[in-house]
Automatic annotation (TrEMBL):
EC number from the UniProt entry: 4.2.99.18
InterPro entries (UniProt xref): DNA_glyclase_Znf_dom_DNA_BS (IPR015887), FPG_cat (IPR012319), FPG_N (IPR035937), H2TH_FPG (IPR015886), Nei2_N (IPR044090), Ribosomal_uS13-like_H2TH (IPR010979), Znf_DNA_glyclase/AP_lyase (IPR000214), Znf_FPG/IleRS (IPR010663)
Formamidopyrimidine-DNA glycosylase catalytic domain ranges (all copies): 2-130
The protein, known as: DNA-(apurinic or apyrimidinic site) lyase
Catalysed conversion reaction: 2'-deoxyribonucleotide-(2'-deoxyribose 5'-phosphate)-2'-deoxyribonucleotide-DNA = a 3'-end 2'-deoxyribonucleotide-(2,3-dehydro-2,3-deoxyribose 5'-phosphate)-DNA + a 5'-end 5'-phospho-2'-deoxyribonucleoside-DNA + H(+)
Pfam families according to UniProt: Fapy_DNA_glyco, H2TH, zf-FPG_IleRS
GO molecular function, one term: oxidized pyrimidine nucleobase lesion DNA N-glycosylase activity
Broad enzyme group: lyase
Record family assignment: Belongs to the FPG family.
Any one of the GO BP annotations: base-excision repair
Domain of life: Bacteria
Alphabetically ordered keywords of this record: DNA damage, DNA repair, DNA-binding, Endonuclease, Glycosidase, Hydrolase, Lyase, Metal-binding, Multifunctional enzyme, Nuclease, Zinc, Zinc-finger
């Protein structure tokens, strides 16, 4: 699932393939920009911003893309077979003499003036993997709405940019609370530690192919709770649970290790566990 670390790696791969080279082919397969022709222009850089990708192009233009749930940018050599999906899923092609970058299933793709980038990414909070990372500002934004559930606050890119469903669930586990606990009920010092842990985990995973939040080396135990519904917790052995939290997003948690409220059951009542 593309989160801040995945987007960072994608930007680095695209930058290595495209930056400093003149485009020999450009094909934007979205109606609004289908007639745009970027051939003959040099790519200046490819920069990640949270979960957004900004491909800056000579002449003051930026190609903005977002991977969302299953988008991908793949880079191919001239004689390499494209294998990212069927042709109808291709949304963008950028090529130079040595490489071709193909964007598959991109839900967001737009060409804008570089000077107007703030209209698409200006709302974002501090970028966990960016040069503007500011942990104090991230904590300030997260704590501004104390009634908001932890999971929702972490997913809000206006608070801090780069966290998705995986890290949301893992961070809640590492903090020892459920994703439904109101942020203002976190014990003193936990918001700061939570933000520091988020930064540490994304930094540790940005270079790797397999995301890992545990110290266990077994390939099936890379994560504490995410994707492990019904399996035993690596710490206490309780069965990991899964439930929707908001906007069809899901959260995973361990009922043995994490204190705080859990989702309402079918009868509409609210379940709570005492906070530590």
């Amino acid at each position: 699932m593309p989160e801040g670390d995945t987007v960072w790696r994608t930007a680095r791969r695209l930058h290595a393939a495209l930056a400093g080279e003149v485009l020999t082919r450009s094909d934007l397969r979205v109606p609004r920009f289908a007639t745009a022709d970027l051939t003959g222009r040099a790519v200046l850089d490819v920069t990640p911003r949270g979960k957004h990708l900004l491909t800056r192009i000579e002449g003051g233009l930026t190609l903005h893309s977002h991977l969302r749930m299953d988008g991908a940018w793949l880079v191919y050599a001239p004689d390499e077979r494209w294998c990212g999906g069927p042709a109808h899923q291709i949304r963008a092609i950028l090529a130079n003499a040595a490489h071709t970058a193909v964007g598959y299933r991109l839900p967001v793709l737009e060409l804008l003036r570089t000077a107007d980038e703030s209209t698409t990414v200006g709302h974002l909070g501090p970028d966990l993997l960016g040069p503007d990372w500011d942990p104090q500002e991230a904590v300030r934004r997260l704590t501004a709405d104390p009634s908001r559930p932890l999971g929702e606050a972490l997913l809000d890119q206006r608070n801090l940019a780069g966290i998705g469903n995986v890290y949301k669930s893992e961070l809640a586990f590492l903090a020892g609370v459920t994703p439904w606990l109101p942020f203002g009920e976190l014990p003193a010092g936990v918001p700061e530690r939570l933000v520091a842990t988020a930064h540490r985990l994304l930094e540790a995973n940005k270079e790797g192919k397999e995301r890992r939040t545990t110290t266990v080396r077994h390939p099936a135990q890379r994560l504490h709770v995410y994707g492990r519904e019904g399996r035993p917790c690596l710490r206490c052995g309780a069965a990991i649970r899964k439930a929707e939290q908001s906007d069809d997003r899901v959260s995973y948690w361990c009922p043995g290790c994490q204190s705080g409220p859990s989702p309402a059951p079918a009868d509409g009542t609210t379940q709570h566990r005492p906070t530590n």
